[in-house]
Amino acid sequence: MIVRRSAAVLAASAVIGAAFAPAAFAADASPSPSPALPSGLFGSADPTYDGVWRQSLALLAQHTAGVEPAAKAVKWLTGQQCATGAFAPYRADASAKCDAKTMVDTNNTAAAVQALAALGGHDGELGKAVGWLKSVQNKDGGWGYTAGGASDANSTSVVIGALAAAGQHPGDVVKDGKSPYDALVKLSVPCDEDGGGAFAFQPDKKGKLAANADASAAGVVGSLGKGFVTTAGKASGGDTCRDADGLTPQGAAANGASYLAGSLDAKPYLLSAMPGAKDQPDYGNTADAVVALAAAGRTADTKKPLAWLEKESGTWAAKAGPAAYAQLIFAAHATGTDPRHFGGQDLVTQLGRTGPAAAAADHSDAADEKKKDDDKGLGVWWIVGVGLVAGIGIGFLLSGRNKKQQL
């Protein structure tokens, strides 16, 4: 998904009144993470607003690239789940029970579902998470960022992706007769209005819909019943905007894809809507748009933005961290591009450096014990070896969106 900016931005906006979440984008590139952070966590920046989000995207991206994530990284994610099934952005003390003050939300929960569903073997966690998501569905069929919040295109779409990943049929998940697809169609800007065909994030106070590129990328993927990880779909229709009367989810997706393609016509990237970032490229939203266009079958329209990302996104991803690398891997996957040869970058290796070593590089306890036995009596060489192993461990913990939300 894709999606979009890290969900952390919306959370941070609501909590601290800012439209930009430092936790999501200001990850440093220091050679080792803060000692206060758990070793299983991806990224070295403050995880308060995006810990579960970036972890979920990182694990899903590794799986998509054929890498088995470290067991402790997966364990960290499952350990963040509350008894209700919901996830908060980050719980520093995961042993403490969640209560009314625990700020759980739909975006982090849905992202965790997509990751755990892909990894397999987590039916218990998935069942509880999906159950919670269904319990907080709005009467219009959609979801807001928090339970009871007004439905928005991004949250509704990420939940659709979670439902589909968990083997559910999103169209069958209804509240008062309304499905999440109904909610998304209602957020499609009418063809005869400014930005016609795009998705709005939410209606304004007067009920008017304003075109939003971030919401459009999310809305396209969600309307097609897909999640963060997708492949090129079958093209349907051209650039003619479909009328709002009788608009289907597929029609809304085609409209949104046409809007995105048009937005990328003059320049191969989307512009940031963040305060103080006028005329600045939005790398994450551009990557999400590539995924959306591919999902809608408009692969020809992905070529220019994808080429731009291959050339220009390296510095951004290094600063933004795990979720950024994941977004690029999802864009590469959707277009059939090798993420290990992405404009001269190996996105998979770079992502791996922001978290614990992948399972293939892990040593079992039995192997470690055997090594200790074999090395007994080596005197100073054993001490030197321990030092080297410790150094390697630190190196593996090198650290860098959803996010997120561009309003």
From TrEMBL:
Basic and acidic residues compositional bias, start-end: 362-373
Taxonomic lineage from the root: Bacteria, Bacillati, Actinomycetota, Actinomycetes, Kitasatosporales
Protein name (Swiss-Prot/TrEMBL): Terpene cyclase/mutase family protein
SUPFAM superfamilies xref list: Terpenoid cyclases/Protein prenyltransferases (SSF48239)
Annotated transmembrane regions: 379-398
InterPro entries in the record: Terpenoid_cyclase/PrenylTrfase (IPR008930)
Signal peptide interval: 1-26
Keywords, ordered alphabetically: Membrane, Signal, Transmembrane, Transmembrane helix
Region (Disordered): 353-373
Record has DNA repair as a keyword: no
